[in-house]
Amino acid sequence: MNLSATIDDLIDRLQSFEPISTEIPVFIGLDGYLDKIQKVVQAQDGESHIYYPTIAAFADRVGQAAGLSAQLELVSQEVKLGGNAPIMAHALASLGVSNYCLGNFGAPELHPLFEQIHTQSTLISLGAPAETNALEFDDGKLILSEVTPFQMIDWDYVKELVGLPNLIQYFSAAKFVALVDWCNLPLATNVWQGIQQELLPHLPTASRHYFFDLADPTKKSQSAIEAVLEVIGSFNDYGVVTLGLNENEARRLARSIEQQTGKRAGEELEKVCLFIYEHMNLTNLLVHPLNRSIIVSPQGIQTVPGRMVAKPRISTGGGDNLNAGFCFGQLAEYSLELSALLGMATSGAYVQNGQSPSRSELITYLLNWKNNL
C-alpha cells in the first residue's frame, strides 16, 4: 500500500465527515474502573526519580527479591476513569460519535471521575467501579486489577437493573455494538449469550456491526475460551462480527484453538491470524501488534503499517482508543484498511498526548505521521 496516499485519503474523509444519522449509533459494555496510572522508581537523583524503563528491567529487580523480599516505590501520575468500555466510549465521543455505555460507574450516584466523561457518552451504571493499578513502562504496561465488583454481574442482573425493554431500545438505535473486557468479568460469557438469545431477536432487522475485545485471556481456562468463541460466532446470524486482539491475545487464542483442534498455527503472526480466522465464525479479525495492524476478512489478509510513539505519555487505554477509531471508520463506511489506519492513529494520538483526540487533533497527528514517513 502507498501509506502517504492512504493517509491523505483518510484526512480528506475526516475533514468532510458528517455526523452519523442515527441519534446514538453505538452501544458499548460492560466494565468500569478507577485507573491509577503509576511508574516504578528504580533510583533517586536528588529530588528526581529515575523510573524502570522496561518491563524486563523491572522483572529482573522483582526476581532478585525472591527469598529476600523488597520494597518498591510507586509514583502515581494520575487517577482517571478506566475500563475498556468507558475509555472506548470517551474516545468515540471525542471524535463526535454519541454512544451508550453500560458498566460499573458508581452507585447510587456516579463516581466523580466518571462525571468527567465526554457529554456525548450516556452512562448506564450497574454498580461500584473496580480498581486498577497500571504500572507503565516504555515498552508496555502491567495492569493490576481488583475486579470484585464484577462478580455478581450476569445476564439476569443486567436485565433486572436496566430492564429488557430499555436494553431493546438502546440496541435498536445502535449501528455498532461493542462488547469488551471478557476476561475480567467472571460471568461475561453468560451476559453475551443472554444478549444474543434474548435481545437480538427483538431488534429491527437492520444490519449491525458487533465488535468483541476479550482483553488478556491468559488466566482463562480452555473450556471458558472455547465457550466464549462459540458465543461470539453465534452473533454472525445478526450482522457483521469483528474480533479485535493484540499480539499477546492472538497468540494465546491460537494456543487454545490448537489444543481444541490438534492443528498448529505456526509462529509468524500473519499465520497465527489466518489460523484463528479459519477456526472461528467471524466476518473480520483485527490484530494489532505494536507496529502494524493485520486484518483478515472474506477478501483475504491485509497488513497496515503503524507508527511507534517514541516517548508515550500514557499507554493504558491505547487499545481502547484503537478500537474506537476502528469503530468510527466502520460507522462511516470506510474500508477495513482505512478503519485500521484510523484506529492506529487514534491510539497513537492518545498515547502521545495523554488524552483521546478530537477529530481536528487526529488530523494533526495524521499530518505529522505523513510528514515523518
The number of strands is 14
Q: Determine the number of helices (DSSP H or I, runs of at least 4 residues).
A: 12
Order of helices and strands: HEEEHEHEEEEHHEHEHEHHEEEHHH
Low-confidence stretches: none
What would you note in describing this structure?
The chain is α/β, with parallel strands linked by helices and 373 residues long. It has one domain: UDP-N-acetylmuramoyl-L-alanine:D-glutamate ligase. It contains 12 helices and 14 strands. The strands form 2 sheets. A 9-stranded mixed β-sheet has the order 6-5-1-9-10-11-12-13-14, sandwiched between helices. Strands 2, 3, 4, 7 and 8 form a 5-stranded mixed β-sheet that branches. Helix 10 runs antiparallel to helix 11. The longest helix is centred in the C-terminal third of the chain and has 18 residues, at 336-353. It is globular. The two termini are 13 Å apart. The model has no long low-confidence stretch (mean pLDDT 95).
